[in-house]
Each structure stands twice: as C-alpha cells, then as structure tokens.
C-alpha cells in the first residue's frame, strides 16, 4: 500500500467521479482506475459502488476513508512539525553542554543568538562529559558545547571561548598572597582533581604532561563546583577556569606563569549525522563570532 494510492482514493471518494478525479490528480483515468483496483485487491474488499463513470463509497469505503483521512492529517502534521523544527527562522536547536557552562557561557550565547533570531527555540541538555557525549552520539542533540580534548575523528569543531586557567587556593593558604605561581611550586601540595566524567580533566592532564610535572590528586571530585568547595574548605589546591559558579568567597585565583594554561571551549557536532538548517545557521553564527573569542593566556 502506497501513500499515492491513499491520496488517489480520497480524491475519488470526494469527487465521486473517475474522470473528474483523474483531471484533479493530473493522471490518466486508466492509471487511476488501476491504482484504486490495486488498493481494493490489497484490502480484499470493494471500496466503491460503480455506475459507469460515477462512483461512490460503499460501507467499506466509508469505514476506510475515515481512518485514511485521519492518517493523512497526522502525516501532514508530522511534516509540518519537522519543517518547523528544522526551519532556520523558526526551528529548534538541540544542544547538550557541560554543567558548569550553564552558569554563564550557554545562556549568554543563546540570548545573543535570539536577539537576531527571536523565533528560534533551543532544546538544552546539561550534564557531565559522559552524559552529553552519549546524547550527541545517539543523535539526541544536534550540537555539543564542551572542551577541545573531547573531540574525535568524526567530529567537527569550532572554538567559542578560551578561558585562562588559574591556580586556586583558599584565602588561608600560604600561597594566597602570591601574584603568580608556576605549577612546579605546587609540588607536595594536596591537589583536588577531577573524575573522568568532567570535561576539564583531559585539558589539565594534557597540560601537566607537557610540563613534565606529575601531580598526585589527593581528592577527585565529580564536578568543578565540588572542587571549588573542597578548596574553600582548605582541603587542597587545584587548577580552574575563572568562571561564574566557581568564584566562591574565600578563594584566591593566582595566574599561572607557565605557558599554555588555558581551557578551550567550543562547539562540536558529528560529521556523519544530519544537521538541520536551524542548527547549521547557529553553527555559522558561532563560526562568525569565533574570531572575537579571547586569545589564549599562559
């Protein structure tokens, strides 16, 4: 059973005349008659009472037309909803992002985009790195905002923001009065690290590898806000980006003298997945804006 057969059936049912129906559908009358006969054979019942070129629904046809009209209406609604979701002017952009980025970066980005595209809606999902990676891989998100180290070969990537990283200590710590520090000076200090599901961990580990300095974590926290809380409680020191949500009272943020200590945040999506026109326009917006992102600071 084909969709065109059902469209032909409803047209014949409405006009109750084969010639008029064939003209309305812009097909030959024999082709229309064949399509209707094929549909009746598939259903194993006649759908019309025939009288020459005049034709009208029988009781089976009336029964069938009721459900087909409803089905066609549902199909039209489905097509309309897809068009609305994908339309670059009125569509929905689905983005997953790291928890900490929901405090400042993501809402700022969404607000700025909607100033020029007020009818576009966003479907936002936040979580740890594992959760949002899975969301993207399963096709539940069009795009993902995360750290550069999480990208793999089948991903596309655009930088959104580059955040300098700081050594963070409590206001009671002996380093609190320093204007700057190198990572080597943290040797022997209890360090508050991150578990694997945090997007910043790969960045920090790669930076430590480049310096040749090995630091053993005393504590491993689930997320960045927990790291900040541990530091405030004077349980250790750490390396964090200076972003809203982490700037707790009682913390001191010390610039790092070593080069390359920054956290690169960007937009990624899968090369092999369909990207809607709405999401493509957002990507173009981010790409255009990326030339203004902060320069790395060491």
Automatic annotation (TrEMBL):
Family that this chain belongs to: Belongs to the LysR transcriptional regulatory family.
Pfam families xref list: HTH_1, LysR_substrate
Residue span(s) of domain HTH lysR-type: 1-58
Name of the featured protein: LysR family transcriptional regulator
Keywords: DNA-binding, Transcription, Transcription regulation
PROSITE patterns per record: HTH_LYSR
Residue ranges that the Swiss-Prot or TrEMBL entry lists as coiled coil: none
Domain of life from the UniProt record: Bacteria
Organism of this sequence: Paenibacillus baimaensis
